[in-house]
Structures are given as C-alpha cells and as structure tokens.
C-alpha cells in the first residue's frame, strides 16, 4: 500500500487539477478516509483473506507449531471486540480467524426464533452475518486509525516532529482487523445448484473459506446430535465442485474448501451409491451397508432392495424412514475414505467431527489419511458439546490405570466432582487440556482449532452474573464492580462506548465536511470524557 504522505501528495495533484472546483477538499482528509475504508467490496476481502489462509497453510506444513485458531461469533460486534482484544494482547492478528457457526445462526439469528442446528433457518442469514462481521471489522480499522490520526494532529500542534514521524509510520504499517472467516454452509441447503448459489452469496459477502458437510441436506443434524445421515461420495463431490466453481467465477482463485465428514457418528445413509464396477467408489461406500445375506428368492419380499456386496447378494437393512443402515463399527473406516476422497476431489482441508477431544483418536485417523494424502490437514472443533473436564480427567485416569497406578482414590464416573479439582489427577488433566491445541497440531494434523459457539455461552454466563447481582442486594454495584470498573482497569475500549460506536469518527467527518461550522458531539459536556 502507498505510504500516507505519498497518497496525500497524489490526491493533492488530483484536487489541483480541478481548476479550483475541489478547493474545499483537504487531500489529507481524503487520504485518511481511504485508509479507514481499505476494502471496498466483499470480494476484495475474500481475495485478501484467501491469500492469508494459503500462506498460513504453507507455514503450518513447514512447522506444525504455526497452527491457526478462531472463536465462533454470532454478531458483528462480538467479532469486532474479539479482534480488537487479540491485537491489544498479542500486537498482531496473525493466525487468528473468525468462525461462523450455522448452529449459532440457527439458535440466535433466525426470524423463526431459536432453532436447533438442522438447516431450518433462512439460508441467506449466514451470508448476512458474514457481511455484518466484516462491516464491524472494517469499523474497528476506522476506529483505531481515527485515534492515530487524532494523535497525529496533536503531535503537529505541539510541534513534536519525532512523534509525528512515529505516528505516520504506525499508520503506514497498520495491521487490519479484517481476518479470514471460516463460514459454515451446513450441507448446502439443497442440491448442488442451491449450494453453488448460496456459496456465491457467502463469497460476495467476504468469505474466503467455506465449510461443507456430507450429511443429507434435508435431514441435517448437529454433529453432536444423533440421527445423522450421510450421502454417497459422488453427491458430496458434486457440492465440492459447486463451491469451487463459485470461487472461480467470482475471481477468488485461492478460495478454501473445508470438507467435513460426520461418518464417525452417522449410522445411516439416504441412498445406495451408484456403482459401475467392483471396487469403485460407489462399491466401497456400499460395502459398509449392513444387511442380510440372500440365499434364495424366498428371502426377498415386495419392496426389498438387493445388492451385490463382496461377491454375495445381500438385502440392506432399511428403516421405516427409508434410510439404510451401516454396519456397526465401520465409522472410522468410512471417515478415512471420506477424507481421502474429498482431498482427491478438490477439498483443501478436512473436518472430522468426533465425540470427544482425544489426540490419539484424531491422530489414528489422520495418520491413515496421510498414507494416501501426505499433506492432509484438519480444521478441528474444540466443541462446547464435549465435557472437557470429565473427558480429560478420564483420559488421565485410563492412562494411570494402564500404567498400574493405584486408582482407589478416584471414581472414574464421578471425576467431574469439585473434590478432584486440586488433586494430582485434576491438575494433570487441566495441563493436558491447556496443551490440547499444541499437541493436536503437532501429532494429529490439526491446522485450525476453533470453538464453534463460545460466545453463546459467554453471553449467557456474563448476563447471568450481572442479573444475579443487579436484581439482588448488590444493585448498581454489580454493574460497577463487575463490568465498568473491570473495563477501566483492563483497558477495554468499550468503556467509552460512544467512541466505539463511531461518534469521534463522525465528529471528524463533520469537520471535514462543514469546517468550523461543524456541530460536534464530543465536546466538554459529553459524559464519555469522564473516562479520559
């Protein structure tokens, strides 16, 4: 990007060429406004963030310690505050993304009201949230740059040349809050054409990465619910193709596709795959169908379906719903086949939905996939649906028990009990939990760690704590001590909420537009001044 001073000079030449008609325009003000609105369209964002993801994937391939992370956000303000916080604490947004969860859109953003994660919400609501998130992230850029510009004006007024040069350098080296969003398209909300049309909406809103799952669109269930139904690989490949075509049509050639498999927990399929010859992809899919061997025509009733499986005629087990059942214990094998097939047919990253956070379990599947696809990488859901405390305490318990350690002081099924918090087992389990992302990135091929719906839970928890105190004996102290005082002491910018909402930016624009006649909101009587 051109430096601020160079951009000001270029705009001055443009103004001066207008023979006085633009004399009211200050080139530096125009340059500042350009800086505060770097991205003109969602496609600009999608192309910019796709390049970031590709660079991050290459960096991870070279060094697994360089994994990426995100938190699910259900509102633009939540995403904005997350990125402001990351910049404040770590001085960079590198390897930090946003995750857009279909679960939270269904639960919090649907006009029908709260819904389960079953693709019943409006299909365009996810694209709308992508646009909203980027609107707030761009506003975070404008807000932070506005403070730099005001400091620059103050340095000039004070005649502090050193500070002025420092601030100009900070403007030139400014790191945007705009980061990649991994956007959940569920199972595509329909057939491949519907998937393509919706993917275009996602991309036009700014999404560089789309997550697609191999469930049946009209039977979709949350990955942590029962009753999941998968589709044959050919159906899923068609939707991967649809998303890729959407990226290419819109000029986002580096767009990233995450192929999610729910096969580990899915025991059903909607239909029998088409197969042309023994051993082809359809035949492999059908080989996992549960069924009864057919020895003669009398074994077949009206309406029964019969297929050839491993050289034998079998009658697949069919439920009253018309769905077919997979053989018990085949989930992991189906996951491996799903992942290899997706990577060989255009997917960039994998998502394996598991029932617990266990590095060994994930690594076991990834290692099998990497025998065929050596660069396989995962996006992994650090799900709030897991009982993390109990899971890791039980993992420690099992390892200690295998090692022959005396476990009489612990009851495995009751390890959630608070009495175990300070024990050696409880503390080691917390250590394993803290190291989970690092360990899984190193040992299980996890490139990106996300929590799908953390801000759903944080909103509920913080609201409960505030309501308990405010409507109880603490009254106003509950807000003052629990919220405002902590905002001030921790340097949370929202304590000056008028500024965060854009009042200072608006005041500066008024001055640009009206000059000395501007009627500004940030004068001496603005109560926001109490916070400095």
Automatic annotation (TrEMBL):
Record keywords: Lyase, Magnesium, Metal-binding
The UniProt record lists the keyword Metal-binding: yes
InterPro entries on file: ICL/PEPM, Isocitrate_lyase, Pyrv/PenolPyrv_kinase-like_dom, Pyrv_kinase-like_dom_sf
Cofactor(s), by name: Mg(2+)
Gene Ontology BP terms: carboxylic acid metabolic process
NCBIfam families attached to this UniProt entry: PRK06498.1 (NF005074)
Protein name per its UniProtKB record: Isocitrate lyase
Naturally occurring in which organism (per UniProt): Vreelandella subglaciescola
